[in-house]
Amino acid sequence: MSTYSDLRQETFKGIETLASAFESLTSNWNLSSEFTGDILTPLQGSNWRGDAAERAAATITKTRNELDAAFEEASAIGKTLRDAHTELAAARADLDAALKRAADNSLTVDADGVNISWPAPTSEADKHDPTYATSYKALAQSVGQDIAKAVARATAADTAAAAALGGATGKSKTAFQPSTGPEEQGKKAADLLKLAGNLSDAQLDELNKALKANANNPQFTTAFYNRLGPDGFLKYYGQLAVASADKGNRSTAIADLQKNLGTALASATDSHNFPHLSDEWEAGLRRAGATRTEILPRGDRVSGSVQPYGYQILANILRTGTYDPHFLNPVAEHVTQLSEMPGFWTTTPWLDTDLDKMKLLGYSQGSQAGGFNPMTGVLDALAHNPEAATKFFNDEKTEYNLDGSVKADHQKNDYLTALTVGGDRSPLQDISKGNYYLASGHAESPDMLALGHALEAATTGRALDAPQDAPLPQHTPEMAKVMQDVVDRFGSGDGPKLLRKGADLADLAPSLGHLTAAYMGDVQGTISPQDHSLTTYGSRADLNPGNTAKLLGALGRNPDAFGAVAQAQQAYTTAHIQNVMLDRDTYGAEFDQAVKNAAHSGGEVAGILTAGRTAGLVDEMKGQADAYNKSIDQNGMWGKTVWAMTGGRLLGDIPGLGKGMSLPANFLIDQLTSSYHIADPNTADPATDADVAGFRGLGDAAKKAVESAVQGTGLNPQQIEVLSSAAADAARDGATGGAGLFTRAING
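and the corresponding structure tokens:
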């Protein structure tokens, strides 16, 4: 089962019939009991003695063992066939749902299930709707992904069933053999973890090697976690981690185990794998997560109320692994809702010695925070799993009871609002050394960074650990909606002030700068709605103009966010100007005005951003000029990423997704964005220098963009000078308008 057509045509009735036959065989099995009653017991009751009797006894015992092995083998085959049928039928249901979705939206799927087409526009409105093709394209991509997942699920089930049948029957042609395959190995590894604090160094090494070698084998991982049970898994790992805290030579091994457990948990809970953990197991994990888990040795001080919650143990494990939203999102939602309960994680009277022991469960590498708020680990998990992150911030909320059971479905999603509350009401705050009885009073930097990374994954579709030069996937409607919510949250109310340097959410600013960079087409189109030629990357984000302007101003004030936005704005505007130049014939008599419009719209965004930088320097005047210059240089990848997203075509180079930029294109982007540098940050008035540099850089960049794109156009030097100067003037004019908006309203 490896192709779309196979899955489309098969009903799996034969597998179901065969599974039922094996299940009937084993349910009525009585060979072993009959053998014992009819042969073994009477023989043992006789007085037969001697060599012949001993040889007969050995043969009879071997025969009985083979009967037991035959029962095990038949049971394993029956279970494998039943599980295979369940999974294959589910894959077929997934495929049918995807095809129905395609049919309902007038999409056509080809015979291979690969190419998906949509109808050509017929009405005049559709013909002139710039989102007609992009909307259908996004829908076709989504349906294509669902089809691919269904086929992959069937293929995985087929492969797993073949492997399981091979493990169940063994290689012997003359005798039955009990299974020694991945399931048995998983159970053996689980038995090692059950030793918990008594696990020797050699056994810990054996456990790590077994998990690492089999972490992506669902037969192994599912058997491993089923053997432990959700509460046992948390208890045994927690006891092992605490017992190893004061053994310096084991910290690396425990850290490796933590990662291996995460990878294995992701495999075991992936609903597309065969087999995988049941919904009941996952519900049990949520119940265990909200329950005290006894891992600290009881003594004079330690009581049940001082033991950590299961989620406090699970949080760091979730930082590793590619998780199915089916598993991760209910956990993330449950933890978030518990975190919204004041003091749920932070009112226990921990001592410094407890925190030292629990470092293996909470924060790592030098953080003073205790790591007892599992929200940070959950947000890290979402940051590594973009699909889950988008669903978490976009989809309707499921409310959970304290024990993790479902309380209500289809509730309004308010997680972004809840997680961005400042001060001592923040659900992200943690405890720290020397402050055992109280939470820290506000979210710490690691918590804010984790939230920012989760928002980046949700809006850009790129995982935290993805290479920086990896192409961004096209924005889906769901991703664009999360971006819209982010702009509304931080472009209104207390949002802009919370992002200022030293404010409670200031550590979010770099990630918000990355988001704004990734959506520069939407941002520029929102600030300059009169320019209808501005393109977006996938589905358009319906951004509020006032909130967008406010957010730009806030990011301009923060040097850690400024660089990415400045790089992206300049790259987008430059590529847009050059695309207009290269499509000169399309614009005809409006060509000159199109170039000016492209420069002007970019200038408006840059004007707000630059005015924000100037205001930040006026407010602080404490070496921030160097910080802004450094931010520009460190965020060069955003200029190149947005250039590729926009389709810049400098010197014949058309960097598509997955392709690198040519050296001339790289050089131009670096040259243009360096013009944003504050020339002499040691001058008496860096704010003035910043303002001058911003406006000068804008004009120079627009001029260079035109000059670089005129090759082969037939324009003479005089025409080039007039056109490039007009673009520079338009950019500066747009910047003046943006800066005026900042002064009049945004900074008010």
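(Above: one complete record from the training split.) The two ends are 64 Å apart (CA to CA).
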